[in-house]
DNA sequence: GATAGTTCCGGGAAAGGTG
DNA sequence: CACCTTTCCCGGAACTATC
């Protein structure tokens, strides 16, 4: 506990003061100065962001955040007026300058005005915490930095700087406290949410602990990326059924656009930020992440139970689906995520052609919107040509518990 | 032309000045003072609202307005800084005070802040007009007056006051100019639009020309109401096919909730504001106006061509529809506006029961939303039991030109 | 606890900016 | 022109005030 450190500090100081006679004036002065420095740095590092602002932050949209001064209850000098904490947007550049220079420099210019950005630092006597609670903050507008080359606004990271000046009780020292939030991507419209999430995910997953704000690797081992995607997947879809080896292999083929390498080959490769969310997948209108995020969205919104049932193979390409189905009985089908449509779900099924040979058909993918009109289960029930879920589960057994309305409820 | 008046004024003044010797100093002074007054009132009445702000004004939504100073090009004294015109919200009470007191009193407190509400009065040398153009104004928030009794916020009228102080060229007199907009109902959400439109319609239609702001009759002759509804109907639906005697009779039965009176009886009646848009129609969840506005909306959005074709009887009650159809051949149908659902369109048709007797069926009304999913024409085509539009037009002839898609285009 | 009134905000549409 | 970025604003949902 932080407060224990302070106790140790004061005990030490007591001892030194007690021994002051023996130490001589010069040494004592130096010791006291050193004490001051230690206290200061202790105090400064006990000023923390308790509740981070959202890392994807939309302008004109309310958000919350709070900071906490751990040593406040112990050290804060009582004052007539409460100490006020201020929250300001800072650019990556400003954040870097703050991190490098130890002096308490003021910000030259603001990159975006935050409304209701000054709140009192309040000590709660019950819980013994000293917090400033930003309950009703809102970023009015964002001034973008000039970007180099192909950088998009959703790759731009900034942060919220919380700062205050307080007086400490024992020595009446005035200390300037400041702390930065995690990096934040500011967006102005929901259509930027996708890309902003990618930036944040990459940063959270791959940044070093004590980096200069907000540098992060440009390329990372594919294995790390897999872990990251898996964690994100489970958190986002809210499922305990995570991604498996086969899924990773499929994803690797997609992100590297390489259909000849083996799973082992991929394991040792590095994947770049550009491959993750800058380059358009060949022949598609979107990036790897945009596609993957679409999959998570549709799973979360409409297919969670089916995913948990294991009824969705999902991360399987058309060829693989074909190979799996071609030797199965008529009416065997499986569900895969559409490669061509974000958040689309396709049904591949085997049917007997006129000449009596088996062939695999793909149904036009259902979008998330389609599924909100009529659920997947019901749509599968509607389709008479579907009989058994791959490998061989009768469809009413696999989906029966999720059938809803007899027919569509639209007028 | 206003400017001609000014010329006459100056000629008169010249003559008086020329005759000054003959008039004697006292009379001259009185005459000059009178001249001043005349000029002043002339100038003041030449300051007009050129473009009215919307009479239903939503907060946080941009709007436009402009004022024009007719005598500006002739009389305005050139100045280094342009004259600024200010736009402010005033309550009905404030408007009344402004209208009564001739002095240029300032407003005590604002009822709502308008952003970008000060713009320059600019003389355009080409067109010779002197205007202040409010291009980007927005009402931030509205402070409602305390209302008496059952008055709702959408019955509250306010206005925009435009004001400025200018110096006139000949005599360097400084004049304070002000002009009020038409009354305005402020809303904060689209769901108040309905009721606000009712207030504005009533006010525009039934207010006297030189009234105290913004008093208006509480009840008016039904005949006047009919004219008003008809004008509104044609303007809103954008049709030249206005309302007819039969329609008025149907509407009168609805608004007066009187099904025994004759059309002539109604002609001499008065209708009250409460009947128009305060009282709920018996057994329904809405007022007369809300119902009527819903009809106009659905006609405007989805049924304009059919209305113009005369294919929609519309303002007909269930009983009348029954009587019209009962002796017609099987499959004869007509279209009427649903009494129970705002903006709903019902089809009534005649069919032969099992016992061989005719009976009239009513199809569950289509809402505006239904019609935006699949158009009326297509829906009529879909319904096999419909054959001839009343009195006896084959349905493909009446609606064929508006058939669209073979089947619904939803997934 | 129903109704009236308001705020919040997702997302479509379209405008604005930039190569 | 196409694409990126932003603004505008409708209308559902949720919250608040008021009786």
Task: Give the topology.
2 copies of one chain form a homodimer.
Chain A: H1 2-18, H2 20-23, H3 25-44, E1 47-51, E2 56-58, E3 62-69, H4 72-75, E4 84-91, H5 92-100, E5 114-115, E6 118-120, E7 122-124, E8 129-139, E9 158-167, E10 174-180, E11 185-187, H6 193-206, E12 219-221, H7 222-237, H8 245-256, H9 263-267, E13 270-272, H10 273-277, H11 288-309, H12 318-325, E14 332-337, E15 345-352, E16 358-362, H13 368-373, H14 376-382, E17 388-389, E18 393-394, H15 395-399
Parallel strand pairs in A: 2-11, 14-17
Antiparallel strand pairs in A: 1-3, 3-8, 4-6, 4-9, 5-8, 7-8, 9-10, 12-13, 14-15, 15-16, 17-18
Chain A binds a DNA duplex (19 and 19 nucleotides) through loops.
Annotated CATH topology of the largest domain in chain A: Recoverin, domain 1
Sheet with most strands of chain A: 5 strands, antiparallel
Number of strands of chain A: 18
CATH class of the largest domain in chain A: Mainly Alpha
Classified in CATH, the superfamily of the largest domain in chain A is EF-hand
Tell me the Rg of chain A in angstroms. Answer: 29 Å
List the chains of the largest interface with their residue counts.
A-B, 7 and 7 residues
Strand content of chain A: 15-25%
Q: Can you give the helix content of chain A as a percent range?
A: 25-40%
**What is the terminal-to-terminal distance of chain A?**
64 Å
Please identify, by name, the CATH architecture of the largest domain in chain A. Answer: Orthogonal Bundle
How many individual domains of chain A? 3
Apparent shape of chain A: elongated
The parts of chain A where pLDDT drops under 50 for at least 5 residues are none
InterPro entries (chains A, B): p53-like_TF_DNA-bd_sf, SH2, SH2_dom_sf, STAT, STAT_linker, STAT_TF_DNA-bd, STAT_TF_DNA-bd_N
Keywords (chains A, B): Activator, Cytoplasm, DNA-binding, Nucleus, Phosphoprotein, SH2 domain, Transcription, Transcription regulation
Protein name (chains A, B): STAT6 protein
Subcellular location (chains A, B): Cytoplasm; Nucleus
